[in-house]
Amino acid sequence: MHKHKSINFLKKYLRLSATNKVKSNKIRNNLLQAIPFWVGAVIVGLFAILYTQLFNYAEVLLRGILSWHKWLIFILMPVSFLTAWWLVKKYSPYAKGSGIPQVMAAVELSNPKEYKKTAKLLSLRVLFIKIISSVIMVLGGGAIGREGPTIQISASIYKKINELLPSSWPKISKKNMIMTGAAAGLSAAFNTPLGGIVFAIEELTRTHFTYFKTALFTGVIIAGFLTQSIIGSYLYLGFPKVNNISLWIIFPVILVAAVSGILSSLLSQGMLMILKFKNRLKNNKEEVLFLLGSSLIIATLAFFISDQILGSGKEIIEEVLFSGDKVLPWYTPFLRIIGTGLSFTSGAAGGIFAPSLGAGATVGSVIGGMFNYTPSEMNLLILVGMVAFLVGVTRAPFTSAILVIEMTDRHSLIFYLMLSGLVASFVAYNINRHSFYDVLKTGYLKALVEEDIEDEKKEKNNL
User: Fold this and answer.
1) Residue 142's pLDDT is what?
2) Number of neighbouring beta carbons within 10 Å of residue 328
3) What is the pLDDT of residue 77?
4) Cα 284 to Cα 90: distance, rounded to the nearest angstrom
5) Is the dihedral of CA 284, 288, 289, 294 positive or negative?
6) What is the CA radius of gyration of the chain?
């Protein structure tokens, strides 16, 4: 009898030991899988800080040069455009533009058969060329932002970390690493952790959120925390005053959202037309002539009309939100659209997130200035224009609204900002079924396939 009890006890002990061992191995594997995400978040935070400082210094230097002799824009801008374009063309063609379509394409290619193609979209070479080219562009007055590039930079960092892991390390989804890197990058660029998470869900993920939610949350939190620890707790735009808003403001909100959605959709279509035209250019000489023409158009408008066509647009946003002069000249949105369109299609590196927010702010300012609104109501219309214009380009209404809410800490406006995002999304969809980023992503995927075919032909000829 005692012998039988001893055997049963031994069996239970062995089962319990086996269960504990499985649990222990699972905890160990989960911890090992989490470490690369945490390491990546720290590196992303440091790179985002460095990139932000370089970008800011370039903008300050540009203002200093122009305050010295404004006519220097006719020399500085063409030289900057050509240098930034040449760096990308020679050393890393897939570092051009925003970087978000490249990340979207890399996510789509994150499978065993096609993963090697992502090396052209995300790499350390892309990272450094992206930073150098975009900083040169902004030094020359290009209407570009650093936020989209930060997303490609961060995704490149996470991809490289994943590739450096030893073969004995628990396997980590390549797609999850890239998506988490992108989300951490947006979080660090705007100091908007929730915006980074929503961006990953709305723009990047095609898989069930459950499979990578923990990695995504921790990566975004660490990157954002590190940025705040070094730079300090800050809002991208500060605290605009918005109080005593009447419900009747909903009608101008819808108007601003609709106009912003139309203008941003037209900007997207215009940029796609320019890019299609550039693809038909036969040689570098023709492309150089195009760049010279584009840069001189922007320089001429900046010199003779307004230098508000230059830069990312953040200064314009801060001016209309936090100064007493909230009404801009009627032509300012068109200047911002022209500057953004010609800068983005230059072939150099540079994002469109911040320029879109800047353009939207000018739309809200101009339309609000047509009526006798209070400063608080004007601020609301400016924020609505920012959300709506960004939606017209990205087709990501929730990401756009959350970003602006986090940038300004104006959670009380969530209804108006969400409404403006949905209105702009509806308007943009009826102008063009496909988003600007989706069209560019498809173009990158097609280019990679064509390059593979060319490489195969060359190999056959060599044999």
Assistant:
1) 93
2) 24
3) 95
4) 11
5) positive
6) 25
Instruction: Tell me the C-alpha to C-alpha distance, in Å, between residue 407 and each of 54, 189, 403.
Output: 21, 11, 6
* 63 φ/ψ sector (left φ>0, alpha ψ -120 to 50, else beta): alpha
Give the DSSP per-residue string, 135-180.
HHHHHTT---BSHHHHHHHHHHHHHHHHHHS-TTSPP--HHHHHHH
Helix axes 124-139, 2-68, angle to 10 degrees: 30
DSSP bridge pairs for 349: 97
With a cut of 50, list the residues of the chain below it in pLDDT.
Answer: 208-209
pLDDT reported for residue 87: 96
**For residues 309 and 305, what is the distance between their CA atoms, to the nearest angstrom?**
9
Residue that is written with structure tokens 């936020």 in the block:
147
422-440 as b/e: b if 16+ CB within 10 A: bbbbebbeeebeebbbbbb
pTM: 0.87
Spell out the residues 6+ positions from residue 324 whose beta carbon is closer than 8 angstroms to its own: 375
Dist. CA 396–CA 392, nearest whole Å = 8
Which among 29, 48, 126, 115 has a CA at the least distance from the CA of 87? 126
Cα separation of 296 and 290, whole Å?
A: 10
> What is the maximum alpha-carbon separation in the chain?
103
